[in-house]
Backbone:
């Protein structure tokens, strides 16, 4: 698992900017993953999680604008391309896609856990970050549950 450095920034503006990039990147990864998923229930969940990430980016962008800074308006194209190449090229089955998403969500949880503890956050920003952290934990648990069920079904078929 690749770990993230997001959440350790000393300045709040840098922290929020990096979280916005992280959320846009996560939304891009979900979009890429959705192309490789056939299960309708799982598709609905992944679409909802993608929308959560876009909502987090929008809320954090609003805070940055309120501080007088311009937020990023999209994620890192290199990250998007690497996910899309793996997911769309058919190099990964649904379980492998979910495992990659689970890893991404673990990094996002780690980043938000660090960010929530930042000493210089105001109450509004901390509240937004705490709600986002709760969403990220829910995403991670849901993806893990789906992954375990998928592996259990595959194992039962042998």
Residues:
């Amino acid at each position: 698992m690749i770990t993230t450095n997001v959440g350790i920034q000393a300045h709040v503006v840098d922290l929020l900017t990096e979280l916005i990039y992280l959320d846009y990147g996560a939304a891009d990864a979900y979009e890429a993953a959705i192309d490789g998923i056939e299960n309708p229930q799982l598709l609905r969940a992944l679409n909802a999680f993608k929308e959560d990430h876009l909502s987090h980016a929008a809320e954090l962008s609003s805070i940055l604008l309120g501080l007088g800074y311009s937020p990023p308006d999209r994620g890192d194209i290199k990250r998007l391309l690497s996910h899309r190449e793996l997911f769309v090229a058919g190099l990964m089955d649904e379980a492998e896609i979910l495992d990659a998403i689970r890893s991404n969500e673990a990094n996002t949880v780690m980043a938000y856990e660090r960010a929530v503890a930042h000493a210089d956050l105001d109450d509004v920003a901390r509240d937004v970050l705490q709600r986002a952290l709760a969403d990220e934990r829910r995403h991670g648990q849901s993806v893990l549950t789906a992954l375990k069920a998928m592996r259990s079904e595959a194992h039962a078929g042998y």
User: Anything to note?
Assistant: The domain at 12-156 is CATH 1.20.1260.10 (Ferritin).
